[in-house]
Write a structure and sequence with these properties.
Layout: H1 2-33, H2 35-43, E1 46-51, E2 64-65, E3 68-69, E4 76-78, E5 80-84, E6 88-94, E7 98-105, E8 115-122, E9 137-144, E10 147-154, E11 179-183, E12 190-197, H3 198-201, E13 207-216, H4 219-222, E14 232-236, E15 256-260, H5 270-294, E16 298-300, E17 306-308
This protein binds calcium ion (CA) (3 copies).
One calcium ion binds next to loops.
Length: 310
């Protein structure tokens, strides 16, 4: 028993040492290969997009599978409240083809006209405060009555194109299940989801300009009629715009950074997973060996005496 405890303790120490070495190595690698990225992080707010582990189905009006949050394989970032009591967060992940975005409007419990979510993408991350460039995109998901719509506009260098409900490849943003909005059963609040081609929103860039806005504003609020309740608005990053910013004039030079990490959430990154599997194998092997040695084999001798292994 004492020997088993020593082995398990030794394995635990190995786990700590190996994971510590792994994390330290990742820090060194990150510091040595991404000096430019580090300097940007100091200036701009950054959202980390992680590699997708849990598939996301758009159009089914759910963000869970058997009560598991489909989005627990990436991290959420809080938006900054601009007005009222809106609290919201945004999470991004991606696979080989698509970028997936979920905006969770935490305090918004009911769908109403005026619920609105917008995203901005600047793939070349060279946005200006005035004219949208040809790589820039603006996507809006909004409720009118009991139906939601989703439109996209692209920069022309002089202005935005007119709103369209289709991607450049012809797919319809709603009918082809590239966007979705609903009240989540597990979170009890309004959700906005997007599935957008990487070729459209990021190209091969690992860091792009990115911004988000969400509103829970009853339409009558805009008409001067006292609202049934007061909603609010929120945006990311801080300073991107405010409630006075006109709908198509948000300054793209104030966008934050969306960073495609190349790995799932850090604690489940490939190197950590390999380390963890190796450690688990070591522990299992240790326990099995210990149990084998504890098994005593007894034999009956020629003179009816018993002898047992130790
Ligand atoms: Ca879904
Ligand atoms: Ca609402
Ligand atoms: Ca641009």
């Amino acid at each position: 028993m004492q020997l088993a405890r020593i082995r398990i303790l030794t394995s635990a120490i190995m786990i700590a040492a190996m994971i510590g070495c792994s994390l330290f190595t990742q820090m060194l690698v990150g510091a040595s290969t991404e000096p430019e990225q580090t300097s940007k992080i100091l200036v701009k707010e950054t959202i980390q997009a992680h590699v997708l582990l849990n598939p996301v189905i758009l159009g089914d009006h759910k963000d869970d599978y058997l009560d598991w949050d489909n989005w627990n394989d990436t991290r959420a970032t809080l938006l900054h409240t601009l007005e009222g009591n809106v609290s919201a967060d945004i999470a991004v992940k991606y696979d080989d083809k698509d970028v997936y975005v979920r905006v969770k409007s935490v305090n918004d419990k009911t769908i109403n006209s005026g619920d609105d979510c917008r995203l901005w993408f600047d793939p070349l991350h060279n946005g200006t405060s005035k004219l949208p460039q040809t790589d820039d995109l603006w996507i809006g998901l909004f409720w009118v009555g009991e139906r939601f719509g989703c439109n996209i506009a692209r920069g022309t260098g002089l202005d935005w194109t007119s709103w369209t409900d289709k991607l450049p490849d012809g797919r319809d943003l709603v009918r082809d299940r590239l966007s979705d909005s609903y009240v989540s059963l597990i979170h009890g609040c309004v959700i906005y989801e997007f599935k957008l081609p990487r070729s459209l929103v990021s190209g091969s860039s690992l860091t792009i300009g990115f911004g988000a806005y969400v509103a829970d504003m009853p339409l009558e609020y805009f008409g001067g009629v006292p609202p049934r309740y007061r909603g609010g608005t929120a945006a990311w990053p801080e300073g991107f715009g405010d409630n006075q910013t006109k709908k198509n004039e948000w300054p793209l030079n104030n966008l934050g950074i969306l960073h495609f990490t190349g790995v799932p959430i850090p604690e489940l990154g490939p190197s950590a997973l390999m380390m963890l599997s190796g450690v688990i194998l070591t522990m299992v092997t240790s326990v099995v060996r210990t149990r084998r040695r504890k098994t005593r084999v007894c034999c009956r001798g020629a003179f009816a005496t018993w002898s047992c292994s130790r």
